[in-house]
Request: fold
Amino acid sequence: MPLDSLTTHCRHCGQPLLGAATERGAFCCQGCAGAYTLIHDLGLDAYYDRRPLDAAAPAATVEEGEGADPLLGLPEAVATAPDGTCLLRLSVDGLHCGACLWLIEAAVTKHHPEVQSARANLTTRCLTLRWTGAPAKAVEYARLVTGLGYRVAPFGAGGTAAGADPAAAHERALLRRLALAGFAAANVMLLSVSVWAGADAMGDATRTLLHWVSALIALPTVAIAGQPFFQSALTALRAGRTNMDVPISVGVLLTTGMSVVMTAHHGEHAYFDGAVMLLFFLLVGRYLDSRARGRARSAAAHLLALNQAPVTVLGADGLPQVLPPARVPLGATVLVAAGERIGVDGTVAEGVSDLDASLVTGETLPLAVAPGAQVFAGMINRTAPLRLTATASGEGTLLAEMVRLLEAAEQGRARHVLLADRIARAYTPVVHLTALATFLAWVFLGGAAWYQALLTAVSVLIITCPCALALAVPAVQVAASGRLMRQGILLKSASALERLAPVDTVVFDKTGTLTLGRPDLLPDPTLTAAELELAATLARASRHPLSRALARAAGPGPVADGVVEVPGGGLRWQGPDGFVRLGSRGFCGVTDAGVGQVGSERPGPELWLARCGHPPRRLSFADRPRRDAAAVVADLKVQGYRVELLSGDRAVTAQALAADVGIDIVRADARPADKCAHLAALRAQGRQVLMVGDGLNDAAALAAADVSLSPASAVDVTQTAADVVFQGDGLAAVAETLAVARRARTLVRQNLLFTLLYNLCAVPVAMAGLATPFVAAAAMSGSSLAVMANALRLGGRKPRDGGH
Amino acid sequence: MNSLLFLIPAALLLGGLGLCAFLWAVRDGQFEDLDGSATRILYEDETPLPKRRT
Reply:
């Protein structure tokens, strides 16, 4: 394989080469070298040209653990079709671009003619494989994919690998109904326009023919495309409530029914066009809504799948066996390879390593563990294999506890009733009573025939059919979410906008939210360039975040040869002037007495540089605030929001950061349950709270707040819990989201006011029996268009012009 | 007005064809992964299409 000695970045994962290059070629680690060789041998080098520049390949990790391979449990998840083909759906972690799809599909099919199809899905991050032969082949394919640097797990929990997602099936059904309604609306409108245009010249027979053709199209459409509304309305009525679907269903059914009667009597007017148009518009809204929530759904399913990864347990006979995480007995010895995700809670029995605990604690720095240390499911073992003694598994783990806390908090929020439904509760009875009153008044006071009075009453229902009312809220929401999406802000929950508008308190998490979640070397005037360079020479050989921060600060340079990385300690190097150590305080032999002259130290992550004949040097690091954090906080305060910092970190660190960005109210040392309690206390004071956070430890707090935001860098479960996810390095999205939400509330109110006025004008006309179909059609379309046009004003405004 | 007798069926037929094509596309799973399809189009197929399962 050709090697370019001048490369400064890993040939596979694209991360800067911080060392290791000398011994391993142009790769940052063994795993990347392996992945590159595999890709090269398969003849798939085009992958490196095809992947987007900003998206690096997943850094491959080496499987150097002892014991059985967790992938051996895969054949159980294979579904076998009657004709002997096997089907497996794998959840693939690290899938993020079209080149990944191509690479995985090509790698699996290349030398395996028995594979009939391999299809990776970027939206659900799922790989579907079909092959003929033994189910055991699954292991071979999965190992190929993990060899490329992706993590895999059976898709969907509990072996329902082949089962379809009911929510996805629902969305497909909605799309089919939308298509049908669109087809019908276009064709019926075509016929209706010709009726209106030729009203004078057209003979009765022709008009009736056109009406019958319209009926032929509209009746099946209403029956099929209207089902979601009818079902929802029925459910609500059975439960003794009304919702927006009740007047919609009544309106559509009455309109269609009356039109059929009219047509049968060679009547002049039929309202088929109105009925199918209404259905079409409403289905568009429902489909968009459902799509937006699909992403959130797939993130949750993905997390669940990763949690199902089998665990290697050392049996009583000393042989390793693979078990699902929930079936690991307490007290069992669990083997965790380097690079593997820990599946159970436990204590370390043997081994020293660094763990990535970000999923559980939100802390970005690796956690050094030694025998006796407590570890939790969901952490990733980074540097060396470990043996654990399981203390909790399955539903008993801290991770499962957090997910339960999250679900409990989310249920509390479900009490929020959508504005549209609240209006429908008042609107429906009023309209139906008005229609009844019209009927009775015409029969008893007006002396009209009951048939004539019924027609008038029905026309009241038709003209008040809440077309504009049903569109008033969704139209604004679609315009608002479109505008936010263009700025990388994703609204996940349909009611998020409504809950954002009344917010008066903004609570920020610290690490990863106000800060970048990545340590940087603090400038230190007493640190000489030679010392920095020496430290960086060692640090370039390591992938520890602090080492990388040091290497970043020093810039490119040479790498020390033969650096030894001690897990949980630091780096050791035999240099020309004796041993050099770079690492933790204990590793470098620093005692508190020996550093008396260093004096007061800024708290935070630190590295020590120790060498012969020199006093140890301290290198301090800090997690810097996002570049616009201070500006956004100031902006929010000017607009009258109460801004708070709620952190699980130590008080000193939290206070220092709060002072930097200008937040006055700080609460530190908060555990996940404390965060929930604090938010509950704020809400008890009558405040509307927006929580912005990114860690799993924030997830429950996000669900407990009235509404929540989370950066796209957050862990999956947190994104699932948040109502809004924003991309990018800045926090401006927070202020923008709030501004758009307030503006949207204004527009919704204008829309509702307008529809109310429209109804106030139209209902008396209908009650008087003057609502000819042309008047009804014009009034209905006119009001709908006005509402839509008003909603579109939201998209046109420039961002951040203080629209509220 | 006699033209209506073939114009209306013709319009319905054409619209119906479009509707059928769309429903087929939905059933075929072409709306399953809009993100993936958007990037896939950029790469040439090097292998013939995989055999379809009937």
About this structure: The mean pLDDT of chain A is 77. The interface with chain B takes residues 50, 85, 97-99, 101-102, 106, 109, 116-118, 120-124, 130, 168, 172, 175-176, 179-180, 183, 186-187, 190-191, 203, 206, 209-210, 213, 217 of chain A (CB under 8 Å). The first helix of chain A runs from residue 21 to 24. The longest strand of chain A covers residues 85-93.
